[in-house]
Write a structure and sequence with these properties.
globular; alpha/beta; five-stranded mixed barrel; binds iron/sulfur cluster; iron; tRNA-2-methylthio-N(6)-dimethylallyladenosine(37) synthase activity; binds 5'-deoxyadenosine; Transcription Regulator spoIIAA; transferase; Rossmann fold
Length: 465
């Protein structure tokens, strides 16, 4: 599963819609998209903006002047799902002031709740699931004709083939590229297999085409996305390719400097993918590999199909291939039946593995998942465990960041910093780094790290770059 990101709007500059006018040549209509949840939603929002660009929609970064508001939602935890309804509540007045305002709900809440959303919030005009947003133009036509539109199918056709070609002449230096969707793992707590459907991999040639196109538009780093990205098995001439082979082929694209992938399941870390971490220079030394718990009893009840010892042995193998790998993980505390001893096993695993980055959550019962039937751990117990786990993970994260001080790292400059003459970029290990330079966005520079702050590093350019 992809990690959660803070709610965000898709930057208007990243979508084709920015240059669009309606077919009749009238003033463009304004589209506001708010994205919740994982990076896959960030990618989907970009593609939805591109699809609506052809309908004359141009993006805006505020709902106040929008003609269409689209919430791209996340269903992973109860809080994320409920946020959608409170956000919709906030748009009530806007809709009252501007009856032509279109309001749409996309993403995993749309998939899970469908028509229920329109029942709870009748002002919603359109509900579209993650597998059918290529049909947005038709759905919008229905709405323009005065009807409500709902589409939460799992269609036969490949939505990516029906979406407009990615259009912007120039892009940011980093981009997401979805290569795989859905999940067949059925962890007992997780809604993803229900909201995103079965595992599907995009064919190799289409991914290569999209990657080459992104690179031609200025992208230097691509993060391959999938709910279970290392289960990738895409059709290619001569048979399916796994993720490692795809990465090695992408690494041949001139101008593409960095490749990352997220998010992975331990049971799909095959030998060639581990080897790629050691011998593919463009594959970055950062791996998000969730374990969720360190207790074998809980892992079994979670239906994770691996033990703590198997996970640790796997980490040792990956680190043998790439000793400087920075490891990231996801954890759930307070899963039904979790005892203090189970929780201690999670802390032990964290101490043994040593994470440079981590995301930890209190278990949230999700309707329709097997774990939701079980007796929950009292909320205050789960709260207390989350605090203790986060304290330990926070220490490890800080130590990993401070350990960078004095080292030389490569940084891809992504945007100007807050101070004049300063740029911000990411290191190979995904740390944010501030550096004084007049080089432009998209430069890949070597930097000596001089200091570690609360959320980022500071570095000095190596002379003569
Ligand atoms: N409750 C809490 N956390 C969850 N996650 C997935 N489902 C739930 C749930 N029901 C977490 C897992 C996953 C991450 C994206 O979200 O840790 O890896
Ligand atoms: Fe959810 Fe488990 Fe699939 Fe990840 S592997 S998406 S946690 S079911």
């Amino acid at each position: 599963m992809a990690k959660d990101a803070a709610p965000q709007t898709v930057a208007p500059a990243s979508a084709s819609a920015s240059a669009a006018t309606s077919e009749a040549g009238a003033a463009p209509r304004k589209l506001f998209i708010k994205t919740y949840g994982c990076q896959m939603n960030v990618y989907d929002s970009e593609r939805m903006a591109e699809a609506l660009g052809g309908q004359g929609y141009e993006q805006t970064d505020t709902p106040d002047d929008a003609d269409m508001i689209l919430l791209n939602t996340c269903h992973i935890r109860e809080k994320a799902a409920e946020k959608v309804y409170s956000e919709l509540g906030r748009f009530k007045q806007l809709k009252a002031d501007k009856p032509d305002l279109r309001i749409g709900v996309a993403g995993c809440v749309a998939q899970a709740e469908g028509a229920e959303i329109m029942r709870r919030q009748p002002m919603v005009d359109l509900v579209v699931g993650p597998q059918t947003y290529h049909r947005l133009p038709d759905l919008m036509a229905q709405v323009d004709a005065g009807r409500k539109a709902l589409d939460t199918d799992f269609p036969e056709e490949d939505k990516f083939e029906h979406l407009p070609k990615r259009p912007l002449p120039k892009r940011q230096p980093t981009a997401f590229l979805t290569v795989q969707e859905g999940c067949d793992k059925f962890c007992a707590f997780c809604v993803v297999p229900y909201t995103r459907g079965a595992e599907v991999s995009r064919p190799v040639d289409r991914i290569l085409r999209e990657a080459e196109d992104l690179v031609a538009r200025g992208v230097r780093e691509i993060t391959l996305l999938g709910q279970n990205v290392n289960a990738y098995h895409g059709a290619a001439e001569g048979g399916d390719w796994g993720l490692a082979r795809l990465i090695r082929r992408l690494a041949e694209i001139e101008g593409l400097e960095r490749i990352r992938f997220t998010t992975s399941h331990p049971n799909d870390m095959e030998d060639d993918l581990i080897a790629a971490h050691g011998d593919c220079d463009k594959l970055m030394p950062y791996l998000h590999l969730p374990v969720q718990s360190g207790s074998d009893a809980i892992l079994k009840r979670m239906n994770r199909k691996h033990t703590a010892a198997q996970y640790i042995a796997l980490i040792d193998r990956i680190r043998a291939a790439r000793p400087d790998l920075l490891l990231s993980g996801d954890f759930i505390v307070g899963f039904p039946g979790e005892t203090e001893e189970d929780f201690q096993a999670t802390l032990d695993l964290v101490r043994r593995v040593n994470y440079g980055q981590a995301y930890s959550f209190k278990y949230s019962a999700r309707p329709g998942t097997p774990a939701a039937e079980r007796e929950p751990v009292p909320a205050e117990v789960a709260d207390d465990r989350l605090q203790r786990l986060q304290a330990l993970l926070g220490e490890q994260q800080r130590a990993a960041q401070e350990g960078m001080v004095g080292r030389e790292v490569k940084v891809l400059l992504e945007k100007p910093g807050r101070l004049p003459g300063q740029m911000v970029g990411k290191s190979d290990y995904l740390h944010a780094v501030h550096v004084e330079t007049d080089l432009p966005v998209g430069s890949l520079v070597t930097v000596r790290i001089t200091a570690s702050g609360p959320n980022s590093l500071k570095g000095e350019m190596r002379p003569a770059q």
